[in-house]
Amino acid sequence: MSEILERIWEYRQISRVELVELTGLTSGTITNLTHDLIQLGILRENEAISGNVGRRRVMLGFDPRFYRIIGLDIGRTSFEIIVMDLNGTILQSIEREMNGVQGPEAYFQVITPTLTTVKQEIEAAGEKILGLGVGIPGPIHYESGSLLAPPNFPGWKGYPLKQMLEQQFDLVTLIEDDARTSAMAERWYGLGKSVQNLVSITMGTGIGGGVVTNGKIVRGTNGLCGQVGHMTIVLDGKMCDCGNRGCWETVGSIPGILSRWSQGSTLMELQTAIRQGEPEALRCIDETLAYLEAALVNVQNLYDPELILLGGRLFPLLAEHLDQLKPRLQSRLYAFAKDRLRIEPATFGTSQSAVGAAALMLGFLLSEPVRLLSLQDS
Ligand SMILES: [Zn+2]
Predict the structure, then answer these.
(1) Which interval of the chain is the signal sequence (predicted)?
(2) Ligand 1 centroid to 245 CA: how many Å?
(3) 159 plus 259 within the same structural domain
């Protein structure tokens, strides 16, 4: 069943005959399985006209009418909830600033009423929630669904997030590091649909990364794969929350950059000062780009992606300088590979992690449809 769903996702609209050719399953099996998936509200038939003679063909695609996926991004300074259909169309998006709100208890006092309303509205419309995907600053203890020790996120260490959400909302729930959900967003809904190897880097209060290799998200032994913010970039640098010294995050995140500029305290002030040619601000941005350049060379050499995606609240500042960065990077890469380097902005802007949180549930549906659907009734 998984193979059928993955092919339909890949082609969007496909006939049963094409499914037989692509999967090697018998036409009887395809007929039975797609019949079940149509009955369940996962797939639907559409008529398409093909060829010169205008022959009508029945095509299969995902059914956007019945199932809904909720994506929740819990960020350090804001949260976002999105509602998506099975085609990946965003039907609703709610975002709220959470500056100064510390710890899970205070946080959920704000989130719970909003999420409850969203859930009730979906159910009142006769639709069904397939599940809740959540992106949050990691690392995460996946077996227990709790947070390990997220840097710069006081009060959340050890918090049993998955269990709490399941009890409170009675929904199938998946949680994932927000840098990895951002990569998921690209893998399933963005540029990763056509690219097998990519690294998504999110730069804001921290610097996170998500790695897709051969079309699969990679977690590693401890869920730390792609923690690009904690690569050592200054040998005798400042201590980092992770226990290492001189991490890229200590100099290249928003707080890291501002700590190297004595003239102001916000990113906006820095951006203005750079435009006005203020010497200290120019020195600060030059240094920032040098760190970024070294970090991206490391990323390229370690993961060998076709595509590096950059996003997060810091990205607008860096975007103005990307053109000068690319030749500098190319000069430091293997000559035969340098022309293939692609750096692009993340597809979904500030909604990247929330879209990726919803993508968690889509990935679950495509890889383990029987298990996910059986959880709907239990
Ligand atoms: Zn670190």
Answers:
(1) none
(2) 7
(3) no
